[in-house]
Amino acid sequence: MASLFRSSSSSSRSWLVLVLATLMMMLMSSSTTRTSAQLQYDYYNTTCPGVEDLVRTELLALFAADVTLPPGLLRLHFHDCFGAGCDATLLLKSRNGTAQRDADPNSTVRGYEAIEAVKAKVEAACPLVVSCADILAMAARDAVNYTQGPAYAVETGRRDGNVSRKEDALRFLPPADGNVTVLTQYFAAQNLSYKDMVVLSAAHTIGVAHCPSFSPRLYNYSGAGDQQQDPSLDAAYASNLTAVCAPGNVASVQPLDAATPNTFDLGYYQSVAEHRALLASDAALLDDSLSGAYVNLMTTNASSVDIFFADFAVSMINMGRIGVRTGTQGEIRATCQVYVD
């Protein structure tokens, strides 16, 4: 894919930028390479041949009918992995309101029915073979690629968990107002690196956020009961946000990347650089020298798109290894959204 940015520097300066960028990414990558002995590529080659093509075909039809679905499925996979591992326990239901999906951070998560529809097609072809957890991972990959993001291979072989606890989501999902230190701690708890945090944050290049996720930046930011706004917000952008989200508005949404909300591109980093990041956690990337340097790289270098796409693919694979169940652990469910009580 062609870069969105062009460099006018000389060849010697370009070489220097590349060297500095390489050194920076080495420093940021404390543990971006991990092994997962029982996850593998093409896991279903003999037990359910062609399943990834089947999943992709079903998803393409769903995406064509609903352009807002791809970011929903990407978020669904992220919240599942961070909640209690990539085991599809976010999909489980509770009559008592005690499952992961009942936690406040998951109240606006969507895409459950899409995964169930895909699972039904897969079950018809290969009963009790392919896990809901693997379908989630495939769906996230296909969502990224459908929105013009990178195509990458997904490791498979996950099995589904059968215990879903609300407190896991409350404990492990990163907050929308976290600073870089806080976010790094949340990612480190999942054996993800600083670089994974900076790169996966850019999943916000597609999708929307509800007003409560960012309205604290618009009203009473100082905590003094006034109308002061977050001073790091671009003034014109802040004005647009207040027009959408009046105090107390919990239903309205705003694109995370206002320029290209349905395209997986560098718009996220451009928004951050221009102080037009919607969430405080995204704006915080400018407050740290290392994450700020990555933002700068993404908005000034001619090879930015290629670098970002390669980094994002690696970080998604890393995330897909969080707390996986393999071998005889867990189960393969015929239906993803079963009740646990």
Q: Could you explain how this protein is built, in words?
A:
The chain is mainly alpha-helical and 341 residues long. It has two domains: 11-31 and 177-319, Orthogonal Bundle (Peroxidase, domain 2); 51-172, Peroxidase, domain 1 (Orthogonal Bundle), CATH 1.10.520.10. Helices cover 44% and strands 2% of the residues. It contains 13 helices and two strands; from the N terminus they run H-H-H-H-H-H-H-H-E-H-E-H-H-H-H. The protein has helices at residues 11-28, 51-65, 69-84, 112-125, 132-146, 166-172, 180-188, 194-200, 235-244, 267-273, 280-283, 289-300, 304-319; strands at residues 208-210, 253-255. Strands 1-2 form a two-stranded antiparallel ribbon. Helix 2 packs antiparallel against helix 4 and helix 12 (289-300) crosses helix 13. The N and C termini lie far apart (48 Å).
Number of strands: 2
Order of helices and strands: HHHHHHHHEHEHHHH
Under CATH, the topology of the largest domain is which?
Answer: Peroxidase, domain 2
- What share of the residues does DSSP label as strand, in percent? under 5%
Strand order of the largest sheet: 1-2
Q: How confident is the prediction overall: mean pLDDT? A: 90
| Sheet with most strands | 2 strands, antiparallel
Question: What is the highest CATH level, the class of the largest domain?
Answer: Mainly Alpha
Helical amount: 40-55%
What's the architecture of the largest domain in CATH terms? Orthogonal Bundle
Gyration radius, rounded: 20 Å
Total helices: the number is 13
Please identify the structural class as seen in this structure: mainly alpha
- Give the overall silhouette: globular
End-to-end distance, in Å? 48 Å
- Low-confidence regions: 1-23, 30-35
- CATH homology superfamily name of the largest domain: Peroxidase, domain 2
The tally of domains stands at 2
Main location: secreted
Active site: 79 (proton acceptor)
Subcellular location: Secreted
Enzyme class: oxidoreductase
